[in-house]
UniProtKB/TrEMBL annotation:
Keyword Nucleotide-binding tagged: no
BP-aspect Gene Ontology terms: aerobic electron transport chain
Highest rank taxon of the organism: Bacteria
UniProt source species: Streptomyces actuosus
Key words, A-Z: FAD, Flavoprotein, Oxidoreductase
Family stated for the protein in its record: Belongs to the NADH dehydrogenase family.
Name the record gives this protein: FAD-dependent oxidoreductase
Pfam families according to UniProt: Pyr_redox_2 (PF07992)
Gene Ontology molecular function terms on file: NAD(P)H dehydrogenase (quinone) activity
Cofactor(s) recorded in Swiss-Prot or TrEMBL: FAD
Domain annotation FAD/NAD(P)-binding: ranges: 14-289
Length: 401
């Protein structure tokens, strides 16, 4: 049993936010900005690293590109929120405590759980041991190191979803001496219109990426992958991008979770089993009229802001409002010089309109670069971060809960 760290005065309501990803940062800055003048509320943000991980750029990290140094403690300066660096090892929702690095314990009154997700390397045997992932900046750096050392050979990108497409394109562009093979069940850009899909395929062809759609990787071996049907493909490096899973902490804590380990929320983003726990971002299973949201930054940041607004309302004795969100785009990089942006309906189905080429590159970069300045603006003007498309009739949930 480690030392118990006392936080806050007896009177102060302590909000602890776990995870400083896109969603957790949004929650911390939004809430801290709103309670800055109050001495009856304290906000603590816990994260594994002091440096903000731009997850949307991890395929760039994986190809050796240097990203900006974004310091979380520096961003929080002046907000009154406290930053705790550490690895969360357990949550006890009955005792209302969080264990960090096994030996520190934080008590909370309200918890915001935003620990994100990682690549699902448990999906097939061998992936955990023999495949690289983009689960964290450190994981991406390991792949960068491996790719830099390869003078020739084959890189298999397993998973033809958008992370797989972006990664295959980036690797092929940065390392033209390597053969890049993109494997997956679906055609790259499967959820896009035929026009956008064709554009993606042409870009991958131009970069020399060999695409094999309609295949399933069933095993990752040292130096190879095995496909359903028994075929084996030699690989000098395998990047696993197929599927995501969430931290087992929520399920271990006894919080109600779905089949992916995500915390099931009520309309206000509170855990259905433990209403003093809010769940946000990739770690939350949030139902909208069109179904349960899937993990994106475009939806994750609003969940963080909404949780902060709900907590702020609850502190004032008001009822939190229902969260509503509608998707609006799917921006996909195809190396540094090309991209495609598929505009979508609120339920994420594709609209006819898409951007391609230089215009799409500029759009994608603007979107990717926007979270950090958004947090900066929110410090001074919290309302500026509370604007997002609500999804209209698409997101309205009709059933009575
Ligand atoms: C290559 C790539 C490209 C992407 N492109 C897009 C895009 O164009 N648009 C889009 O909308 N989405 C995109 N995504 C998805 C997007 O990045 C995620 O949906 C988003 O990061 C989710 O935000 P989050 O805050 O829930 O989690 P994360 O951003 O994953 O943050 C979770 C944080 O919690 C920390 N953490 C986790 N476990 C612990 C622990 N036990 N203790 C302490 N800290 C912990 C992590 O270190 C991290 O800082 C992309 C993802 C990838 C991998």
């Amino acid at each position: 049993m480690g030392t118990r760290q006392q936080t806050g005065t007896a009177a102060a309501h302590h909000v602890v936010i776990l995870g400083a990803g896109y969603a957790g940062m949004a929650a911390a800055v939004q809430l801290a900005a709103r309670v800055k003048q109050r001495d009856d509320v304290r906000v603590t943000l816990v994260n594994a690293q002091e440096r903000f991980t731009e997850r949307m750029r991890l395929h760039m990290t994986a190809t050796g590109q240097q990203l900006a140094e974004l310091s979380i403690p520096q961003l929080l300066e002046g907000t009154g929120a406290r930053f705790v660096r550490g690895w969360v090892t357990a949550v006890d929702p009955d005792a209302k405590t969080v264990r960090i690095d096994d030996d520190r314990v934080l008590s909370y009154d309200t918890l915001v759980y935003g620990l994100g997700g990682v690549a699902d390397t448990a999906a097939v045997p061998g992936a955990e041991d023999h495949a690289y992932t983009l689960s964290s900046a450190q994981d991406a750096e390991l792949l960068a190191d491996r790719l830099a050392r390869l003078t020739e050979g084959t890189v298999v990108v397993a998973g033809s979803g958008l992370t797989g497409v972006e990664s295959a394109a980036e690797i092929a562009e940065r390392h033209p001496r390597l053969d890049v093979v993109l494997l997956g069940r679906q055609e790259p850009g499967a959820a896009m219109t035929a026009k956008a899909r064709k554009y993606v395929r042409a870009a991958l062809d131009r970069l020399g990426v060999r695409v094999r759609a309609g295949v399933e990787v069933v095993k990752v071996l040292p130096g190879a992958v095995e496909l359903a049907g028994g075929e084996t493909l030699a690989a000098d490096a395998v990047l696993w991008t197929s599927g995501t899973r969430t931290s087992p902490l929520a399920a271990a804590a006894g919080l109600a979770v779905d089949g992916y380990g995500r915390i099931v929320t009520d309309p206000a983003l509170r855990s259905v089993s433990h209403p003093d726990v809010y769940a946000i971002g990739d770690a939350a299973a949030i139902r909208q009229g069109y179904g349960v949201m899937h993990g994106t930054c475009q939806g994750g940041m609003p969940t963080g802001v909404h949780a902060a607004l709900s907590i702020h309302r609850a502190l004032d004795g008001k009822q939190p409002k229902a969260f509503r969100f509608g998707y609006y785009h799917t921006p996909v990089s195809l190396g540094r010089g090309d991209a495609v942006v598929q505009f979508t309906r609120p339920d994420d189905s594709p609209r006819r309109i898409c951007l391609t080429g230089r215009l799409a590159v500029r759009y994608k970069e603007t979107v990717t670069a926007s979270p950090w300045p958004t947090y900066g603006r929110m410090k001074k003007m919290p309302a500026s971060g509370a604007i997002w498309p609500r999804g209209g009739r698409f997101s309205r949930v009709r059933e009575v809960r």
